[in-house]
Design a protein that fits this description.
alpha+beta, seven-stranded antiparallel beta sheet, 5 helices, 7 strands, 40% strand
Length: 190
């Protein structure tokens, strides 16, 4: 999946319109949806969060340890689906954590997309605080997962879009949203 000389239209066409003037064909969209649907069983719990279900999730930490990559998100929609009116709370102080852990990572890059669609590595960009705009499953089998995440972050008075590409042997999802929600209930915060 190396991003050297790769073009976003070829690698992750479903995400391309976020970065450049491009509209994937209806056939490309249908083919991707069919591919995604065929992989839902292997994706397990992750399938509940993909296909624009992580939109607006904020990246609150990223940890690389050994050969693993742990991306911790704030599930910014969790409270809404619990039917709670949080208007009286400062949601910037409440996080509903979700961990996406990639195991035996082969490649992890943070990238910029040039106007022509070329993918250019930009590892120095700090993705903490970035929000997910969309995702695309690139490849999945019993010993490989490749995933693209389109990000948005407002930084230095500029709106910045980046593309995370991850290739790993496997992945794990750890949901902690319910635990936080239960603790808030016990404390009488809700």
């Amino acid at each position: 999946m190396a991003s050297d000389e790769k073009n976003i239209k070829d690698l992750v066409p479903i995400l391309a319109d976020i970065f450049i003037e491009y509209e994937p064909s209806i056939n490309t969209s249908r083919e991707y949806q069919a591919y995604f649907d065929s992989k839902k069983g292997k994706l397990g719990l992750l399938s509940n969060y993909m296909n624009r279900q992580m939109i607006d999730f904020e990246i609150i930490s990223i940890t690389q340890m050994d050969n693993n990559l742990d991306i911790e998100f704030n599930d910014t929609t969790y409270w809404f689906f619990k039917g709670v009116d949080f208007q009286e709370f400062d949601l910037n102080k409440i996080t509903f954590p979700l961990h996406l852990i990639f195991k035996n990572v082969r490649e992890y890059t943070v990238n910029e997309i040039l106007e022509n669609g070329r993918i250019v590595n930009n590892q120095e960009f700090n993705i903490i605080g970035a929000e997910i705009l969309n995702d695309q499953l690139i490849y999945l089998d019993d010993s490989n997962i490749e995933l693209g995440l389109a990000l948005w972050k407002y930084s230095d008075n500029v709106s910045k879009h980046k593309l995370i590409l991850v290739s790993a042997e496997s992945f794990e999802i750890i949901e902690k949203q319910e635990q936080v929600f239960s603790e808030l209930l016990k404390k009488g915060c809700l």
